[in-house]
Amino acid sequence: MSSSETCIFVPGEAIHKIAGSSLSGGTLVLQFSQADEIFVVAAVEIGHDIRSSTLPSRDYLALNGVNASFDGQWLRAPEPGDATSLHLQHLLLARRPLAAIPIDVFRDLVAGVRDPGNKRGFLITHDPQLPPELRDLGCPEFAGWTIERTGVRPLPLQIEPECFGIEQLAATWPVERMSTIRVLLVGCGSIGSAAAEALASVGMGTIDLVDPDRFLWHNMIRHSLAKESVGRFKVDAMREHLRERWPHTTVHPHREDVVEDAHTVRQLFKEADVVICAADGIAPRRVVSHLARRAGVPSVLACVLEHGAVGELLRLRPTPRFGCLLCMRAALANEGAMDAEADQELGYGTGSTHQPMSAVPPDLRLIGTLAAKVAVATVLESRHGDHTQRLPGEHAIIGLRPAGDLAPPFDVSFAGEIRWSTIPSPRPTCPTCSPP
Amino acid sequence: MNVDDAFEEFQQAVNADPGAVREARERRDLFRDAFSSETDVDEIIASGSLARGTQKDPIHDVDVIIVFDGSHHPDWGHPGESAAAALNHTRERVHGLLGSAEGTFAQEVRLARWRNHAVKCFLDEPEDPDAFTVDAMPALRRDGRLLVPEAVSEDWIACDPEFLIAQVAHRHATWRKFAGTVRMLKSWAAQQPFDVKSLVMEVLALDHLPTDASRPAALKQFFVSAAFAMDGGSVVEDPAGLCGPIQSKLDYAAFAGALQAARDDAAKAIQAQVSNDTAAAIAHWGKVFGADFPAVGRGSTVKPTAVPRPVKDTPQG
Question: Which helix H or strand E contains B175, and what residues bound it?
Fold first, then answer.
């Protein structure tokens, strides 16, 4: 049964009302949307001549797009006698395209089916006594039918499920554990907004968003937010955006600059299970590296380098074996792999707080999503012993538009290539890694 | 045999002999009863793995802390000779109360010698293969902590063994298999080709052994997250935050490597169990825990080397 066929959408409200009605059958009001070729159960007769509205909330724009109304019918399925269950026949018929039950035969099977005349009638049957073995076979408790004089055919029902969030994945994803995890996300720009969406969509319990900036026109090209958010603080708009789509994630907005407001943001690091930094520029990343280390919390630093040619993810673990951002950068500079003075520092002290972004939106989204993946995997492996979430290293270089002319370890050659390596141990004199 | 049966059998193998446990408790009670009538003793605390319920076979010693009243020993608790003096006093009172010749309470202790922190009391005949000692440690209680003598440094050190006892008790109250599973981890450590103190495993278990999973799942999670922590260069320290590293000479690189190997075998065991391959699961757990873990029964289909599973062509978009 393909979801592209014409079908009837049955809101959960309609299901509850049919199942709970003391009647053995009644009328339905179906609304039809011509643009999408869908029927929606808009009202159910729950008592004699008493109809109750069942339309879903206005958030479901397509399901509320009405062009015409039709009368339908619902009936309680008959007890199966020596014949097979009505809904088993529904299942078997649905597997045989164009097959139909003659209307006289169907009306003998199901008492009370109205004569459709020369039109097409719609019927929903409900079998509350459906045996478990038939449910296991795929028989539905609620079945849809089109009734025509030429025959009765199964009609797909799309029933609103009790649960359609991340809970559905509870058998294969640690949904309950995720709901207890708290992530601090510094930077709600192109990469940060993608990371935030990824975090919320895996069922993250709490996300603290830190960013002092407003969402402006020039942000729209790469950001998860759109026109309606222009002018708003990014953290506030992102909270609303995430709440609409993933209401089970608690989002706390903080209109703060992690550098200037480090004294107040510091507490958030102590409360976090993991930190992601997707902020522009060197200073915020250094502050995040320092505060996370001091708080004993792992952090993931995400960015693109070389005008979007490569992406970089750093996982900083506050343990004796692994150094901080400064230790990593010092090692890269010593190896001639990174020119911190010319290419990075000068650009930020000359009136502009960040380099003009020249990466394409999907590349930034890729880095943001991967940063979220690394953060979640880190917590699941380290805290919850999830062997399926082990990472190959602490430092990832991702080819986005690589020209192949960069020094190792940035010398990826292919778009889509991901190269993992480790990071150096703390420098003996490192002010971040040395105990305070 | 299913995986749970195998773990039950393994549990019996790592548990201390019930007779030895009974004997150990009787010896603990003997010291408690003997010292409780001493005028300079405030309390007697059962300590060590027996108090935590994490003792594995064989029992080597029973730990008893004798908390003395500081007002009777005003010179104790300070750097210098008082550490040795406290140990001497304890040894003399053991002899006086429980010495095999002159004991006024009972004649049970054949020999008492003090070590760095405690007086080791021998009750068994030297040739007894099941012999174990009672280690009586003098202490003072100050500021909610215990001060215990350290003969080598001629000083007193603060410790809080009751913290670990309480933590293990809390975990065990949450999950009745906690203490038994810790015994399994101690058995794993005892099989390593380098020295790992039992207490290292107990403290690691506090941090990394979950209390909301089945035993195989909990053990797998332990090995994964403990391997992650040790790989990062972390050191196992006194959970009460007083005594620093528990085993300063532990070969942490080897320890991390052993945990990683156990992690990989445990993950394979879990995956085999998910795939309903009980024999393979048991075989992989056998690799983790060694010869004491039940062998796969005869007629098993488990292969000596794991064959990579082919990917099913069931694409989803």
Answer: none
In one-letter notation, the amino acid at residue A44 is V
Cα separation, B128 vs B110, in Å, equals: 13
Contact A359, A307 (CB under 8 A): yes
Nearest to B148 by CA among B81, B87, B237: B87
Dihedral of CA A422/A425/A430/A432: which sign?
positive
- Per-window interface: B 170-229 vs A, CB < 8 A: 208, 210, 220-225, 228-229
List the single best residue of B209, B222, B223, B228 to mutate versus A (max A Cβ within 10 A): B228
Sequence-distant (6+) residues with CB within 8 A of B216 are: B3, B7, B266, B269, B270, B273, B281, B285
Of A321, A382, A385, the CB nearest to B220: A385
Whole-number Å distance between alpha carbons of A363 and B311: 29
Beta bridge partners of A45: A51
Residue B28 CA to its chain's centroid (Å): 17
Cross-strand pairs, B237: B245
* B263·A387 Cβ contact <8 A: yes
> What count of Cα atoms within 13 Å lies in the side-chain half-sphere of residue A9?
23
User: Count of residues for chain A?
Assistant: 436
Q: Are A303 and A367 in contact (CB under 8 A)?
A: yes
**ipTM attached to this prediction:** 0.84
Burial class (CB in 10 A: 0-12, 13-18, 19+), A30: buried
Q: What is the rounded distance in angstroms from the CA atom of residue A415 to the CA atom of residue A402?
A: 6
Q: Looking at A41-189, list the stretches that DSSP marks H as alpha helix, in order from N- to C-terminal side.
A: 86-94, 103-109, 132-137, 175-178
The size of chain B, in residues, is: 317
Q: What is the gyration radius of the CA atoms in chain A, in angstroms?
A: 29
Pseudo-torsion of CA A320, A324, A330, A333, nearest 10°? 120
Which own/partner pairs from B96-102 qualify as long-range (CB within 8 Å, at least 24 positions apart)? B97/B34, B97/B35, B97/B38, B98/B30, B98/B31, B98/B34
Q: Which residue is associated with the tokens 């003009």?
A: A356
E strands, A286-363, in order: 299-305, 310-316
> Residue A38 corresponds to which tokens in the numbers above?
């869908």
Instruction: Tell me which residue in B222, B228, B235 faces A381 most closely, judged by beta carbons.
Output: B228
Q: How many CB atoms lie within 10 A of CB A56?
A: 18
What's the rounded Cα separation, in Å, for the pair B151 and B159?
15
Mean pLDDT in order along chain A per 10 residues (436 residues)? 70 96 95 90 94 91 88 89 77 90 92 92 94 91 94 94 90 95 97 98 98 95 95 98 96 97 97 97 95 97 94 97 96 89 48 66 97 98 96 98 94 96 96 88
**Long-range contacts of range A400-408, CB-CB < 8 Å, 24 or more positions apart?**
A400/A304, A400/A308, A400/A309, A400/A310, A400/A311, A400/A359, A400/A363, A400/A366, A400/A367, A401/A308, A401/A309, A401/A363, A402/A309, A402/A310, A403/A309, A406/A306, A406/A309, A406/A310, A407/A335, A407/A336, A407/A337, A407/A338, A408/A335, A408/A337
Strands A50-53 and A68-76: unpaired
Indicate the pTM of the whole model: 0.87
